[in-house]
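W.,

You were right to be curious about this one. When I first looked at the sequence I had no strong expectations either way, so I just let the prediction run and decided to look at it fresh. Below is the sequence, 285 residues in total, followed by the output.
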Amino acid sequence: MKNFKFLTVLFNAVILTVFISCEKESSFDTTEEVSNEVSKEVLAKIEQLHYNSNGVHKQIITDIDGTQKEMYIIEGDISMSYDQIMGTDLHGGVQSKQYRTNNLVSTPRTYRVVGYNGNNNFGLSAVAQRGLQYAVANYNAINIGFQIELVFSTNFTANDIVAYTQLNSNEIPQDGVRGVAGFPRAGEPFKRVKINGGANRHGDDQLLEGLFTHELGHCFGLRHTDWNTRQSCGQSGEPAAPEGAIYIPGTPGASQDSSSIMNACFPYNEGEFGQYDIVALEYLY
């Protein structure tokens, strides 16, 4: 599928000074800013779940069907509703370093991913579509209890995961290569994977492969591998605490795997999983 990759690796390594990161959650329409004031109750729960409570703010998201919802943007790259925050249980905290959330998806299942290909501000470019194809192939190639069916269309149902871009979004910056997604709920994966305009215009399908592989990882329950430091982004991360992120046995530990596609600012890797990303997914599913 990717025999041509190695011909461009050196060139890509030189140009990849862009900031590669993920944000998390999405909409198909304009995003309105609301008051950044967050209640002490919500901030306390966010800290209890071992997220960084600094800089948390709220946004009203308008989806493609016209419905609106208030979302909390956490750590600059995780989007959760009030019910998701308050309804998440610690389930005993850290259990035994890829890490997962407390919520996973149901298996065995086939999950349908729709790459939105409309001729508008939401449609994925040809390069982004190839990157999404490669990302889905990454999941289907490993020994896990679910498969992903990928189609490119403007039609989708409430049960589909929809991957798209949004050129006029205020949710994530439009520079660099960035994306947003979210975490599973009630056994179902998160339903939206959005990339910014910088990613959609980028000419490197391997870079887009890595971005989509990363964001789908969140949809299926994976946290950032370096959640405790976010050192891959040159950030300080979160204070150490014994709860909120569940260790996946057989993986190196928090901030100990520089090759993980699930690091907050993921490595180039030609878009592929790191060794322990596969170990983590095969352990979980």
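Here's what jumped out at me. Confidence is low (pLDDT under 50) at residues 2-19, 24-34, 90-97, 238-244. And, maybe more interesting for your project: The helical segments are 9-15, 40-48, 82-87, 126-140, 197-201, 205-219, 275-284.

Coffee later to discuss?

I.
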